[in-house]
Amino acid sequence: MTIRQRRRFRRRPFRTALILLAVAGVALAAPLAATAADTYVPISGAGSTWAFNAVDAWRVDVGQYGMRINYAGTGSSDGRRQFLNGTTDFAVSDIPFQFNPEDGSPPENPASGSYAYMPIVAGGTVFMYNLSINGQRVTNLRMSGANIAKVFTGALTSWDDPVLAADNPGLTLPKQKIVPVVRSDGSGSTAQFSLWLIAQQGQLWRDYCGRVGRAGACGETSYYPTLPGMIAKFGDLGVAGYVSQSYAEGSIGYVNYSYALNAGFPVVKMLNAAGYYTEPTPDNVAVSLVKAVINKDPKPELYLTQDLRGVYSDTDPRVYPLSSYSYFILPTKVQGQFSEDKGKTLGAFSYYFMCQGQQEAPSLGYSPLPVNLVKAGLEQVAKVPGVNKQSISVAGCNNPTFSPDGHNSLVDRAPFPQDCDKQGAVQCGTGSGGAKQTTPTKAPVAPTAAAPQQTQPQHTRPAGGQQTTQAGQGPTTQRQPNAGGNPTTSSPAAGVGTTARTVVRTTPAGQHPSGPTRTTARGAKPNVKITARSAPAVAATSAAPSCDADTGVCSGAAGAQTTDAGTGSGGDSGGVTVLAQSVPLAGTTGWGPTQTLMVVAGLCALLLILLPPIVARQLNRKRTSP
Question: Pairing between strand 251-256 and 179-183?
Fold first, then answer.
């Protein structure tokens, strides 16, 4: 540079600042480009309401990565139908395609090589009920498998029947009509229930089929046959919504465990083959599914499907007999509305919930997958067209079910039932399901027979702290700072690599809003593990929600409030439930907006330090120059 050029440069101190800003822009360009590199197109799916609460939580979680996942809980049968018609990108079903239906329904014939099954979450089908004795709600009801079968085949019609008294020696049950509530839609829950009935109570089921005119089609069914006096409702939400109404006393219906937890209602403790009454806590489900036989036949129509007959008869005292898995049905070729661009989104979403999402399962009322199904599921994801294949170490998934070496540690530490849960003993005084925390307003037990209460580990999330949002309005989302630089945060996270988040999640039935309404840690890609995570149980309330008889939409009760919204696809009611929960979330690694802002702040600070001396020096030289 010549002397003249140096003088010109010194006379333009602000140009120096502009040069420094340009350097800052170059420094920022690379990380910003990396942040924007992963772009995703929206995808949509439909199916199981049994698995809905888990899928909905995961789809909200991945909004932080720019993924938009639309999922409609329209029932397993409708989900499979939409997948076959090419109107969705994926389906969720509790049972596989029905090539040879046993109930007279049309066969389902997906094209060979067009799909793959991937287990996504485990859980239990429970019998949520609404029963009171002298105005006090019963929360610790017990029933044998035979009595459950009699209730849902019309052979048992009154709560004061002596066979129910044998299950419940501590209760004087009321003389009140039993009202069974079943699914009106094609349901995987119904199919799983019918399979259990066939295997364990075959004669009762066959007799029932004859009474309802299905003697020639009395096998597994997704469409529950009804008798006069039974109530049929759409989806798990419809069943749970009806049972939880104040005027539905005496009713009992089958739903996924998570719905009873969210509604704050009790579930029947079911007698297992070991002679203990249990419910499907995450621990009990993990123990139960050790005896599930997973089909290893490589044919797509068979691979990873489940045979649960070993679960029904398992003699481990912790077993809950109606435990099972739910499945994603993944496309393995471009078809219908599905494209490779959508495959990239679907693959990233699947990688997320096979590891990080499984950590959230217990707080939602489900049980995380065992190691063999996580490994198999990751292999299935790789078959999706357009997926960015990831090499994920299962040891790094931090799945609560198994240790890094793959051992099923949850089975080892799962607690055994209490003595008061044993057949013949007076039942425990504590509540079940979403009514665990109802003491001292627990179900009345004879004073001379009351069993001492014992504290059990809480692994599920009872209802409580729920809020309400009106149809057509967005939820009130309280966003908390989190590690990794979520752009919605407004202040740095306290501590190092740890954050507490407030979860505000909308769960409409049918069609659901697609944008993220919940904050989680950002910065890590969906396959990056979370090193520690806990979800403390939220205290349940004993107040009963008031729900519409036809739609299942609930409102008015503390701890379980919903309001009306538009009707969802497939006939599902559009009630909006908002769940609020504080969840500590461990920090993740990776470059995110927070890191970018830190670089900008550092460069600005550097400019503020360097610029004044430069300007002062140039002005001084100008004044002193001849």
Answer: parallel
Of the ranges 32-36, 221-225, 572-576, the best mean pLDDT one: 221-225
pLDDT tens sequence across 98-145: 999 998 899 999 999 999 999 999 999 999 999 999 999 999 999 999
Give the span between the Cα atoms of 400 and 409, in whole angstroms. 8
Phi-psi domain of 113 (left: phi exceeds 0; alpha: psi -120 through 50; beta: other): left
- E strands, 456-561, are 498-506, 546-547, 554-555
Burial (CB count within 10 angstroms: exposed 0-12, middle 13-18, buried 19+), residue 209: buried
Which two structure tokens, joined as six digits, stand for 438?
């109802």
Indicate the Cα dihedral angle 410, 415, 416, 422, nearest 10°. Answer: -120
- What is d(CA 245, CA 238) in angstroms, rounded to the nearest whole number? 11
**Beta bridge partner(s), residue 91:** 46, 329
Gap between the terminal Cα atoms of the chain: 22
Amino acid (1-letter code) at residue 93: S
Residue 536: how many CB atoms within 10 A of its CB?
12
pLDDT 10s digits, 145-176? 999 999 999 999 999 999 999 999 999 999 99
Q: Is 324 exposed, middle or buried (0-12, 13-18, 19+ CB in 10 A)?
A: buried
59 contacts: CB under 8 Å, gap ≥ 6: 67, 69, 70, 71, 349, 512, 514
Give the number of other Cβ atoms within 10 Å of residue 137's Cβ: 21
Phi/psi zone of residue 413: left (φ > 0), alpha (ψ -120 to 50 degrees), beta?
Answer: alpha
User: Token pair 């040891």 is at which residue?
Assistant: 395
The pLDDT of residue 530 is: 31
- Among 56, 52, 112, 58, smallest CA distance to 78 is for 52
> The tokens of 613 are what?
């001396």
pLDDT (0 to 100) of residue 598: 61
**H/E element holding 596?**
helix 593-624
* Rounded CA separation 404/293 (Å): 23
Rounded Cα distance, 72 and 570, in Å:
9
